Amino acid sequence: MFRDTLKNILIFAILSFSSYAVTAQKVKEPKTTTEWTAPYQPFRIAGNLYYVGTYDLACYLITTPQGNILINTGLAASGEQIRNNIETLGFKFADIKILLTTQAHYDHMGAMAAIKKMTGAQLMVNEKEADVLATGGSSDYELGKYGTSFEPVKPDRLLKDGDTIRLGDMQLVMLHHPGHTKGSCSFLFTVSDEHHSYRVLIANLPTIVTETPFNNIRSYPAIAADYVYTLRAMKNISFDIWFASHASQFKLHDKHKPGDAYNPASFKDQAGYDIAIGDLQKQYENKLVSDRDSH
Ligand SMILES: [Zn+2]
């Protein structure tokens, strides 16, 4: 009797461990940094828009009377921080009804599958990301070399350029900004407080992640043309305040310190945006030069 119980415990332990080992092997985040994993005090940005990400992995919560929208989820381990941040602000994690992402890389998709399971929210993504979502990143033209880097997840709705995402009184427009990934995208919407309305741009900046010459990327033949398209499109967006997928990209830590009073105007920064896009234009041109030199 006792021996049987012991045997069962042993079998259970072996099974649990092996299933853990399989899971751990299946999803492997290639790298993390302390900026990505460090916690950060959540805060109200403007109207019903809140910052709920880590120190550098930007995640945004948009609240409505009909439930909330979460944009980006950081790494797998960021899920717990995002939940704490949302609850610290006085909102319910379970009220997330829609999940969005600016790009299908593991540092924004890490906790997506888990948060979707926990909240039952609808995941809506740019249709061009659906394939990489299904493979957990292993079919990405560049990061695919690391294998499965986030838990695969099935979207509930596929979005096209210019599509509107609606919840309660909110309307977000999805802007297709490919290059960094095939379906990288930005979101444009308006939030209001008792004094002002703000046109908000959450921009996915088209940084270059590959050292392979563009012409040699067989799984993404349109990559160079996509960067040209995105850089041009991003120069022509009008907005009042702007944000990005990483806090460092829009200099969050220069604009806001933990505990600062509510001040949406601190994110009015057309000049900073123009400089960022100008730098990316240069990065693209330098890439074409180094591609040519590598022949
Ligand atoms: Zn990325």
Write the layout of secondary structure elements.
Blueprint: H1 2-26, H2 34-37, E1 43-46, E2 49-51, E3 60-64, E4 67-71, H3 78-88, E5 96-100, H4 106-109, H5 112-119, E6 122-126, H6 130-134, E7 157-159, E8 164-167, E9 170-176, E10 185-192, E11 197-203, H7 223-235, E12 241-244, H8 252-255, H9 270-293
Parallel strand pairs: 4-5, 5-6, 6-7, 11-12
Antiparallel strand pairs: 1-2, 2-3, 3-4, 8-9, 9-10, 10-11
This protein binds zinc ion.
Features:
295 residues; 12 strands; binds zinc ion; alpha/beta; seven-stranded mixed beta sheet
What does this structure look like?
40% of the residues are buried. By secondary structure, the protein is of the alpha/beta class. α7 packs antiparallel against α9. The strands form 2 sheets. A 7-stranded mixed beta sheet has the order 1-2-3-4-5-6-7, covered by helices on one side. The chain has a 5-stranded mixed beta sheet with strand order 8-9-10-11-12, with no helix packed on it. It has helices at residues 2-26, 34-37, 78-88, 106-109, 112-119, 130-134, 223-235, 252-255, 270-293; strands at 43-46, 49-51, 60-64, 67-71, 96-100, 122-126, 157-159, 164-167, 170-176, 185-192, 197-203, 241-244. The protein has 9 helices and 12 strands. A hairpin with an 8-residue loop joins β2 (49-51) and β3 (60-64). Bound molecules: zinc ion. The site of zinc ion has 3 residues, from loops.
